[in-house]
Amino acid sequence: MEYLLRDLRRTHYTSNVTEDVIDEEVTVMGWVHEIRDLGGIIFLLIRDIEGRIQVTAPSKKISAEILEDIRALRKESVVAVKGTVQSSSKAPNGVEILPSEITVLNMADQPLPMDPTEKVKAEIDTRLNSRFLDLRKTGVSAIFKIRNQMFKSVREYFADNNIIEINTPKLVASATEGGTELFPITYFEREAFLGQSPQLYKQMMMSAGFDKVYEIGQIFRAEEHDTLRHLNEAISIDMEASFMDDVDVKNILNDMMVKLITDINDKCSDELDILEYKLEVPQGRFPDIDYDEAVDLINARGVEMEYGEDLSREAEKVLGDEMDDFYFLSGWPTEIKPFYVMPYEDQPQKCHAFDLMYKNIELSSGATRIHQYDLLIEQMTKKDLSPESFDSYLKAFKYGMPPHAGWGLGADRLNMVLTGVENIRETVLFPRDRHRLTP
Ligand code: AMO
């Protein structure tokens, strides 16, 4: 048995083995998905990133040596199969490969810790414990193919609108988001934290004159939540724009969602079919409900909510049932939003903050920011934050900070919406939650 690649190279992915290459010699490489030995004939299903192809070995046509090699194969082993393509009405794709050479590149141990053929449903924990095998499933890799298109479309949207990509530090000195906890770390002789949000940096980039910026990066939240929508390490798509307010950046978010969903429908139709999921492209502007109105509505539907509270799960469900799929929830109480959010001029107990909701999931939060130094200090003090610990941030507001606004959009939650999965862990290769730090 051979285990090395040497000068062996793939000539075709399984998806390229079609009626166009009948009678041609091809080499495919992948995993042994299935072996069916009927005595006189053996069927192999080889799987790669693109799909599966049947390899058919009738004992009358194939050498005894190759038949022996096939019989020795174990499920999920890695192989290279060279052979001739022939048409077959019985093969799943109408063609099959008649093998002339089988090279085992790695034999898989048995039994497998889990079955990656989707025949047996496994619990999420079992799946995550052997995630490399779980990710071999077509239905699971479809989520990540959609995720790939999601980031591609988002980047395209930003590039088309002259929004500059930035990268900001994730090792930071202070908190930005009230309410969620920080992960402390030891940074040489001092205490530091893992960043909760690029908030302060994206705002500083407005003072730096970059006009419009975005970042796609990790955010770390030491929340003890154990829900289907929270992770302790998530990906946030953040944007910030100068000379704009909350309404302008809502429009940006709205337009980006429409492009994104249109793209996913156009470019990932196979993956959506695999997931048996339909995505509707939203039309026009998303409706907008004011926080006060939402509180009244929630109470009217029998779920108690006091003015000034954040939405409970039950309250989110009420709104999800009443509103369109996508909607904005705006005009939040200043008290429960972070210090950097601009209060209404005439009614400072309310502020220019909004959330973008999809049914009952919060996808994004954003706001017009305070750009005046004195007002920022005032708001920090009201929230019991010490301005001294924000020195390097505050400096950026003293020497020419333009009015600005922005938002943060949870990429993993967005991925849930685009694939229809109900557990956020499904959208992350190696999720980090309250109980999981491996693999
Ligand atoms: P916020 O804290 O609301 O706002 O976060 C923005 C979005 O990030 C996602 N998100 C999470 N996703 C999974 N697990 C978590 N634990 C988690 N926490 C947040 C959500 C959320 O809507 N600085 C502001 C944004 C801004 O104003 O620009 C911020 O971080 O989808």
List descriptors.
alpha+beta; 28% helix; single chain; 12 helices; 26% strand; binds aspartyl-adenosine-5'-monophosphate
Reconstruct the topology from this structure.
Blueprint: E1 25-37, E2 41-48, E3 51-58, H1 64-72, E4 78-87, E5 95-106, H2 124-129, H3 131-134, H4 138-160, E6 164-165, E7 171-172, E8 184-187, E9 190-194, H5 199-207, E10 212-220, E11 233-242, H6 246-267, H7 269-274, E12 288-290, H8 291-300, H9 313-322, E13 326-330, E14 353-358, E15 361-368, H10 373-382, H11 391-394, E16 404-410, H12 411-419
Parallel strand pairs: 3-5, 6-10, 12-13
Antiparallel strand pairs: 1-2, 1-4, 2-3, 4-5, 7-9, 8-9, 10-11, 11-16, 13-14, 14-15, 15-16
Helix pairs in contact: 4-6
Aspartyl-adenosine-5'-monophosphate is lined by residues 177, 197, 199, 221, 223, 230-231, 234, 236, 238, 362-367, 406-408, 410, 412-413.
